[in-house]
Structures are given as structure tokens and as C-alpha cells.
Design a protein that fits this description.
By secondary structure, this protein is of the alpha/beta class. The protein has helices at residues 23-35, 71-77, 79-102, 124-137, 151-154, 183-196, 249-256, 325-338, 396-408, 445-454, 460-467, 470-473, 478-492, 496-512, and strands at 13-19, 39-42, 107-117, 147-150, 169-180, 200-202, 205-209, 217-223, 233-243, 264-274, 283-288, 294-299, 305-308, 312-313, 349-360, 373-376, 385-389. The chain is built from 14 helices and 17 strands. The strands form two sheets. Strands 3, 4, 5, 10, 11, 12, 13, 14 and 15 form a nine-stranded mixed sheet that branches. Strands 1, 2, 6, 7, 8, 9, 16 and 17 form an eight-stranded mixed sheet that branches. The protein is globular.
Length: 516
């Protein structure tokens, strides 16, 4: 797949230009293309490399939206918050059912546990009620399998046997939850399916807005991947623009109207990954931490477990988000306070990451409005432009469908509808190719070459992080990193100096972004 110079696109017109190739942007491009629209998708880094790659990676049945420090008081005082929670819980359960049935390779079932303490914020009946509500929202063929055990029957289970003050434990709720194997693959696959239906998809391409005139948006595209030679600029035109820039939504809006009020309040979610004993492999736990917010420990790739997240308002550099010392200490302290028997220490951390949630800015929500919203930006002086805020991974299809329906009200598709394909992409079977890591035939050097030639992997990090889970399944050696670069170099025309630059860039990201 040879990338054409951006100059080839100069002057072309599209029905919709989607700015931002995270899960919501990629899914919207897919659904718009399926509806018959001529679409261009532009992402300034790699597809899914922002907040999509840095979530807790839990599919979420929607229970998260009922978890507040004082649920009865909080919802009684704010029926609006209850209505939002119910809407998001319904959306979560609907998409949970869809993803488990049509993309089972992308998710893994685990048993998630909820400790109910005698003096805790949630009595057992309230947990039971929450699951009765959730059960009504989801399909019967993807059950929650919810049950609640008395304390004496649960104390032998992983995590529960490690819990603090076991004499306070009243009971334990258990249910089937799902964790994403790698959410970026959902994003990449959606973008590739949009391309199959005729969309132009561009990663490592920044997009800025000009001034809308006569219902026409000029959008300037600039190549950003210097080491691969993807440079140059082009200006295309669009009848509609979708700003799916996530935490960069305000920055995109301001390229057209600098005075536009901010839409985003970002909250930072930091995570740490550790190795636990083998019998914990299929179990996770969710509890309430010392500040009344959810604390998860859930299975991750490579037989590891993820601890997190934090939830702090983030006002730092949105292009350089990482776990800091305060994040690390907070997560370790909360884990030790909730489950001292685990004995997790700083030396046990294998890697970690942090992301920022693109939540809606609303005075009634000091840490951001968590409900998915598709905005018409005409009232903000951006006619024909739309934006998506607070769209978590599990509701990306609902966001895309709402956006497509909104655009259809004012702009008919220019082409015929097509059938979209949610099925996961697979690397071609090539048993003669060498594995990247000896003994692991699930990832071969030919797969990295395929990522470069057919999946828009322009950088070594795109392939090793974005297209596979190699970085999280294995502690890659210097030789393995060099082999991966070599598998891509011939297809992307990298010189020896560019290979070295790619290796150095990947190692920098491993250290700074993932604590490796």
C-alpha cells in the first residue's frame, strides 16, 4: 500500500471530513461510508493512539455509571444525573451484546467481583437492583451471569481472600464482564472497513479548518510522519465536518474560530500493570476507593492485571500524557488499602500508561460530563460542523449511528448505501515466516510487513503498538525490535538512518508512555 502524496488530494471535495482517528472518528467514518457518503478521515498521529489506546480496556456493562460516593442521595438530588446514568448504561449493554457476538476475538470474558461491606456505600439490595436494571437492557444471549455470595462462601476466591477487614465483608457480587484484548484493533478495523467502502483514510496527517463559506468547509491537511517521508499539504473541501478530535476538540475548533468556548474538560486516568498468581488469571475486582471512585483490577494481555484508574482533572500538555509519581503512589496505596493480602509493591509494576478522557465541560459536573453527546456546532459559529464528546469505547457504534442520522437530516448521501463489516481483520496465514518472539507463532515478522503494506502502519510504533499487542505480551529485546524494524523497512523504503530513528522513537515511547 503505497501512500499517495497529499498533493493528489488537493482541491477534492467530500461529503464529510472526519478529523480525529480514535474509536469514535474511525467508527463514524465507517458508518458514514456505509450510508453512502464520500468520506475522508484524518488523524494527526496513528489511528487509536490517543485516548482509545489508554483506557482501562474494560468493555463495561454500564455499572460504572451507577457508581457514585452516595448513590441514593446523589441521584435523589439530581434526577438529571440519574437519567444520564440510565441512558449510558442502556447504551453500554446494547453494544456489549453486539461486540461479544460479532467480534468475539476482540474481547475476553472474565469474572468481575464486587465486595459488599456492612458499612459500605452499597448495600446488597442496591447491587442486586443495579443488575436487574442492566439485565433488562442487554440481550439474553449475552448474559451478565450475576449472583451474590455470602461472605463465608466467597472468602476463598482470588482478591476476596486478600481483602482488608474481612469481618466487615457482608457478601460478594459476581458477574461476567469483558475486557478488550486491544481496543486499538477495533479502531483500525473500523477505519480499514471505511476504506474498503471508498473512504480516504489518512494517519499521521493533521487537519485544520478554514472559514466556512456557502456551506463549504476548507480543510487543510498536513503530513506529520517525517521519518516515513509523509509530508506535504493539501486543501480539501467538505459539506460537513465531524470534529472527533477527543481531547484536542477545542484545538480543532479554534483553527476556525479562536473565540469558541471550550467544550472539553479532560480527566486523567492512570493505570499500572502487575503480575499476579496464576489462579487470578480469569478474575477481576471493582471496589470503591478512599475518595469514592471506582478502583479496578482486571486481567490484561500477557497474563498480567491492570490496576486503575485515577480520575483527576488534567490541564497539562495533551501531547505528552504519562503516569507521574503521584499517580503511581495513589494507585499503589489504594490497592494496598483495599487488598493488603496482594502485597503489590512498586517493584512489581511491569508497565503502565495514562490517558485523558474527553469529557463534556459542564458546570454541573466538576470532573466532566461523562454522557456521550453528538453536538451540532452551528450555535458556536461553526455551521455544518459536529463534534462528539465523552464517547467511551463501548458506545462508539451508538455515537457513529447518532452522528450519521444527524447528518442525514440536512445532507443526503451522494452515493448508494453499502453493507459495513464489523468482523475483525486477520493477518494472512504464513506458517513459513519467522515469529517475532521465538515460541509465539501468533505474531510473525510477515504480520508486521502486512501492517506496513495493508494497514497504514507508517512507523515502527504503529505496527508494534497499534496493529499488534506485541509490546504488551512480551518484553521485547533489542534484537526483536530491530527484527521488527527490518520487516517493515523494505516495504516503506527506510534507509539505515531511518531504521535507527524508528527504533529510537519506539524505545522513547516505551519509556515515556508505557513505563517500559
Amino acid at each position: 500500500m503505497t501512500r499517495q502524496p497529499l498533493s493528489k488530494l488537493d482541491g477534492q471535495s467530500f461529503d464529510v471530513v472526519v478529523i480525529g482517528g480514535g474509536i469514535n472518528g474511525a467508527s463514524s467514518a465507517q458508518h458514514l461510508a456505509a450510508a453512502g457518503y464520500k468520506v475522508l478521515l484524518a488523524e494527526k498521529n496513528d489511528f487509536g493512539s490517543g485516548s482509545t489506546a489508554r483506557s482501562t480496556r474494560v468493555l463495561h456493562c454500564g455499572l460504572r455509571y451507577f457508581e457514585t460516593p452516595r448513590p441514593i442521595i446523589d441521584f435523589a438530588r439530581s434526577p438529571r444525573k440519574l437519567a444520564i446514568s440510565l441512558r449510558m448504561a442502556r447504551a453500554s449493554m446494547e453494544i456489549r451484546g453486539e461486540l461479544v457476538k460479532d467480534s468475539p476475538q476482540q474481547v475476553r470474558p472474565v469474572t468481575l467481583m464486587i465486595p459488599v461491606f456492612r458499612d459500605g456505600p452499597y448495600p446488597g439490595w442496591m447491587v442486586d437492583l443495579a443488575f436487574r436494571i442492566l439485565g433488562r437492557y442487554g440481550p439474553r444471549d449475552v448474559p451478565l451471569d450475576y449472583r451474590r455470595l455470602p461472605a463465608d462462601q466467597a472468602l476463598g476466591l482470588p482478591f476476596i481472600r486478600d481483602i482488608t477487614d474481612a469481618n466487615r465483608l457482608h457478601s460478594v457480587g459476581l458477574f461476567t464482564e469483558y475486557v478488550f484484548r486491544w481496543p486499538v484493533r477495533l479502531c483500525v478495523d473500523a477505519a480499514l472497513d471505511a476504506e474498503r467502502m471508498g473512504a480516504i483514510i489518512l494517519n499521521h496527517t493533521a487537519a485544520t479548518l478554514g472559514q466556512c463559506a456557502g456551506g463549504n468547509w476548507p480543510v487543510t491537511l498536513t503530513g506529520t510522519a517525517g521519518t516515513t517521508g509523509t509530508t506535504g499539504t493539501a486543501t480539501v473541501h467538505a459539506a460537513r465536518v465531524l470534529n472527533a478530535g477527543g481531547i484536542w476538540i477545542d484545538r480543532v475548533n479554534h483553527t476556525a474560530r479562536p473565540e469558541t468556548a471550550s467544550m472539553i474538560l479532560g480527566t486523567k486516568g492512570a493505570h499500572l500493570v502487575t503480575r499476579l498468581p496464576g489462579d487470578y488469571a480469569d478474575y477481576g475486582i471493582t471496589a470503591i476507593n478512599s475518595i469514592g471512585e471506582p478502583h479496578y483490577i482486571v486481567p490484561s494481555e500477557g497474563g498480567l492485571h491492570t490496576i486503575g484508574p485515577t480520575e483527576t482533572v488534567y490541564e497539562g500538555d495533551r501531547d505528552d500524557i504519562r503516569v507521574d509519581a503521584d499517580d503511581r503512589q495513589f494507585l499503589l496505596d489504594e490497592t494496598r488499602a483495599l487488598m493488603p493480602g496482594l502485597g503489590v509493591s512498586d517493584d512489581d509494576i511491569v508497565y503502565g500508561w495514562a490517558g485523558v478522557r474527553p469529557l463534556g465541560r459542564d458546570p454541573g459536573f466538576p470532573k466532566g460530563k461523562r454522557s456521550l453527546e453528538v453536538h451540532d456546532l452551528a450555535a458556536r459559529g461553526l455551521p455544518g460542523a459536529h463534534a462528539i464528546t465523552a464517547g467511551p469505547i463501548m458506545t462508539h457504534r451508538i455515537a457513529a449511528r447518532e452522528l450519521t442520522a444527524l447528518i442525514k437530516k440536512t445532507l443526503p448521501p451522494s452515493g448508494p448505501p453499502q453493507l459495513l463489516d464489523y468482523s475483525p481483520r486477520r493477518f494472512p496465514d504464513n506458517p513459513n515466516a519467522l515469529p517475532l518472539v521465538p515460541g509465539d507463532t501468533s505474531l510473525r515478522l510477515s504480520d508486521l510487513a502486512h501492517a506496513a503494506t495493508h494497514e497504514h502502519a507508517r512507523d515502527l510504533a504503529d505496527a508494534v503498538i497499534g496493529r499488534t499487542t506485541a509490546l504488551f505480551r512480551h518484553r521485547l529485546t533489542d534484537d526483536q525490535i530491530r527484527d521488527a524494524a527490518g520487516a517493515m523497512a523494505a516495504h516503506l523504503g527506510w534507509s539505515a538512518d531511518q531504521v535507527e530513528a524508528q527504533i529510537a522513537d519506539l524505545k522513547r515511547r516505551m519509556r515515556q508512555t508505557y513505563l517500559l
